[in-house]
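Contributing new records

If you add data, match the layout below exactly. Sequence lines come first and carry their own label; structure lines follow with theirs. Keep one chain per record. Anything else will be rejected by the validation script.
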Amino acid sequence: NLVLVEFLRDTMVYPHQSEHFGFYAENDTSKIIPLQESPLYINDLLGLKILDEQSRIKFLESDTDHLQFTNQWFIDNIIPYLQD
């Protein structure tokens, strides 16, 4: 499994949607293109499309700043996906 965590109040990664492989539309920094609409996904350049079709990408969110989570949050939210 690939576990991706988007930190919704991230002050280090911009745009924070890139933590889920989202990114700006070409020549338009006002619009974010989600992973599934990106050339990276459509052309399956990293195998993300295959993983997603197999439901092996886990998209999590944390309403915190960059990498700000407790050990318990990690155990409760990440570890279960790594045991599959």
